[in-house]
Design goal:
The complex is a heterodimer. By secondary structure, chain A is mostly helical. Chain A is built from eleven helices and two strands; from the N terminus they run H-H-H-H-E-E-H-H-H-H-H-H-H. The chains are: A mainly alpha, B mainly alpha.
Chain lengths: ~300, ~325
Amino acid sequence: MPPALIAEQILNGLQFGVMLFLMAAGLTLIFGVMGLINLAHGSLYMVGAFAAAAVAGATGSFLLALIAAMTAAALAGALMEMVVIRRLYARDHLDQVLATFALILVFSEGTRWLFGSFPLHLDIPAALKGPVTLPGGIEYPRYRLALIGIGLTVAGGLGLLITRTRLGIRIRAGENDREMIAALGVDISRLYTIVFALGAGLAGLAGALVGAIQSVQVGMGEPVLILAFVVIVIGGIGSIRGALVGAILVGLTDTLGGIFLPEFFRLFLDPATAANLGASLASMAIYILMAAVLIRRPTGLFGARA
Amino acid sequence: MRGMLVGAMLLAGLVAFPIWAQAADEPFLITLATRAVILALAAVGLNLALGQGGLVSLGHAAFFGIGGYAMGILASHAQSYAPLMEWPFVIEGTRSMPVIWLVAVLASALAALGIGALSLRTTGVYFIMITLAFGQMLYYFAISWTAYGGEDGLSIYVRNGFPGLNTLVPIEFYGLCLVILLVVLAFHAALIRSPFGLALNAARQSPERVRTVGIDTRRLQLAAFVLSGAITGLAGALFADLNRFVSPSMLSWQMSGEIMIFVILGGAGRLFGPVAGAIMFVALEHLLGGVSDYWHVFLGILLLLVVLFVRGGVIGLLAGARR
């Protein structure tokens, strides 16, 4: 296999990983601060993608579309938090799973009602079309490279937000002891809404960015949601750093497994069987990775609490 | 006591409804009722792990689907007269329901043993997610497993047979499914009262105390998880036989979510809760589905209201708080 192809696949894995991180960061923040498991996070991803497609269709501007995606998802998230999620913090995980599953039904069918069942189209901006030549003569799509850049920039910004700002201090304090910071005069329910909207905005951004290379349709959020769960379970629930490491691990495993496992089996099996077995195993690879991590460390790589 | 009364009324309804439908010459309603009974069986299985054991499994579609594929694989081999394997000994496919059920129960129990042994190393939210992930793992495996239909699934032409019955007649197949549901419910009721059931219930409420008296809670929960998976697997075989079709969608996480909805809608931990929940779900699907293509919106809102405001599900509402 030529090294250029391998490098390209590694970049693809990285791109997939950083987009997963945008989803996983919100999920893990929400779980860390509020102790809530939110299945409807994938719906916010979908809301972002639809908002972006609608705005890009009306104005033709990709930048406006991204802003719209983040705003729409953050607003939808804040609304969701204030109407439903707020009542679930004191409940057990079972109630949270069911209520947020119900939210998925409402959001998915509601979107189908508004936009119809046909996928919408969101185009890559003209400035980011076409390939770019990397050192070593590797041709790689400019847009995917931009995704990696945006993802890593957001990851860095989020790190700064958590460690350097007043909001970040409050978020970390909220993770440690919510009664104490409430007693110190922090408006805890507003903090929760802000954290939820922040996570939702990140999910919406991811939806819009990925929507431009896949199709924008109802149900697009759920496969990504489940991968994001795998990511935060591997990384350790509540840890942003864990989410980043987990996301890149999952992105690389999924992408490289799909390429290398069939090749690997071809070494000692006939081509048809090898392709079949390789594809089957590759589709399960990240779940096998997760099971392996959990058997070694039941609270994930960077997780402190169960 | 009132719980038993509600249960008795439910059962009376399950017996009376198809007889009425038969008299009114509405075979479609009997098929609908069969669907409700089979989904109820799947939910009774989950209720054992979730309601009694407190194990929130979001991956029970795995067992439902394994049961379904047990039916699909055996029946498709019988259909094509190609043996399943020829070495070291020949295994033929079969059209016999009892054999298929046995294989479905054993296969799903075995899968539950493996998944449970790994998943029970974790607790709480990690348990929810790891069961979800195992379910997805099997889902993607089924999609990429082209020998048995891959993404398109697997159809069989004729429903499998049961000695002495014509399973193609809707009401006879319905009766068969109802009897299985009743047997499993009786087993479930006996299990709750047995030392095993009592210890399982105690382990959910206060694991430390149960461990203190010398009971290994993890083994207890694993046993419950295996039984639970086996029952759901049996339901999967029946469901596939009802539709004469099995596809990866039986393994999807939406299916896991739906099975969990049946349990919660009806009332978790209650003997008849999952039955009431499944009947309500199928009835709503039929009634609302006729009104609007977007009936899932209403289902979602209803489910939200039940979770937020009705603790204990429908049975809890009718029969008062749990002991």
